[in-house]
Amino acid sequence: MQKHFHKLAKISIVCVYLIIIAGAVVRMTGSGMGCPDWPKCFGYYIPPTEISDIQFKPNHSYKEGHVIQVNDLFYFANKDFTTGDSLNLKNWQKNTKHEYNSFNPTHTWIEFINRLFTAVAGIPILILFIVSVFLWKDKKYLTIAAFLVILGMGFEAWLGKTVVDSNLLPYKISIHMAGSFFIIAMLLYCIYKSKEIKSSFKPVSLFKNVLIFSLLLTLIQVYIGTQVRQFVDEQAMVNSNAALWLENPNLAFYIHRTLSILVFIVNAWLFIQLKKQRVPYKLLNYIMIVLGLEIITGIVIYYFNFPFTTQPLHLLLAAVLFGLQFYIMLQVMSKPKSQTTN
Questions:
Q1: Residue 210: what pLDDT?
Q2: Where does a domain end: 103, 130, 152?
Q3: pLDDT value at 340 more than 70
Q4: In what way does this protein cross or attach to the membrane (predicted)?
């Protein structure tokens, strides 16, 4: 059973990273409000594909929550009913939750696919928790971690609704990202603890402290990065020329850029220390590769005016970096009692 748990945890974390990619694409394309409601999209399980789908239709059956657009405003059906020959707004509730009242089929389907990814990812995570229940007697910590993942996914789903209702308030988007990192951490814990491997490496306190510091630096960088992204979004709303979005950047941009140097130096120090002791921690090799790619994508974004896919890749690399650092921390901090196999 523990073998199945281990594989399910791996599948689950891949799904979470796919969700992060999908979410980054949503943010990059400005599709966050592609669906004005949640969990449905324009009141439908399968969203509309053209504007005629959300225009008033006489003698048509509408379900509660279905959306129509009238005079550049969205109206939600407040009950199940069949329309007459003309529009009667008494059966409709005007959208007052947010200012978004535009229909863009591309944005709608990008947001819908993002939600679909999230729903699909919930399947292996739910199965992971069910399997963990059978491990409760001997591995209670695995059941607790799997339950926290379920809670995290539920919180992210609820927060996703409030993000839509709030018209994409930046601080809620930042909390949304923090929630995904928490889920990654719990899943990595599940992966590691379901297959503990003894290590002869006994790091000194300085190494452990610097490792923790590097992880905190990454989290700070991600948070500041969301502030930079908020600034860019605001610039994009008033100017379609990407070359001007960072012409006069805010303070968060300079802090983010400067901290990237410190992040690289700290992780390079960790890498050098392990090489000196000839410790085969391959994950630190991957960390240096990811850091290099992260810096390159940041340079490309700034100097080449936000090429398509670079922003999602930049965010994905940050999430991968956090995952690698957290897993190494588990290896360094844990004291396995036994060796287990697949």
A1: 92
A2: 103
A3: no
A4: Multi-pass membrane protein
294 domain-assigned: yes
- Residue 13 counted as domain residue: yes
Which among 195, 224, 258 is the end of a domain?
Answer: 195
Residue 99 belongs to domain spanning: 35-103
pLDDT at position 320 is 94
- Count the neighbouring beta carbons within 10 Å of the beta carbon of residue 245: 21
Paired strand residues for 92: 77
pTM of the entire predicted model = 0.83
CA dist., res. 323 & res. 218, Å (int): 10
Q: Which long-range contacts (CB under 8 A, 24 or more apart) does 289-294 make?
A: 290/317, 290/320, 290/321, 290/324, 291/263, 291/264, 291/267, 291/321, 293/317, 294/260, 294/318, 294/321
Residue 111 lies in a domain: no
191/206 same-domain check = no
Other CB atoms within 10 Å distance of the CB of residue 189: 22
pLDDT of residue 59: 93
Which phi and psi (to 5°) does residue 289 adopt? -65, -45
Tokens of 59: 């003698």
Do 19 and 45 reside in the same domain of the chain?
A: no
- Asked whether the predicted pLDDT for residue 167 surpasses 70, the reply is no
Q: Determine which of 34-43, 108-117, 238-247, 276-285 has the lowest per-residue pLDDT on average.
A: 276-285
Share the mean pLDDT of the chain. 86
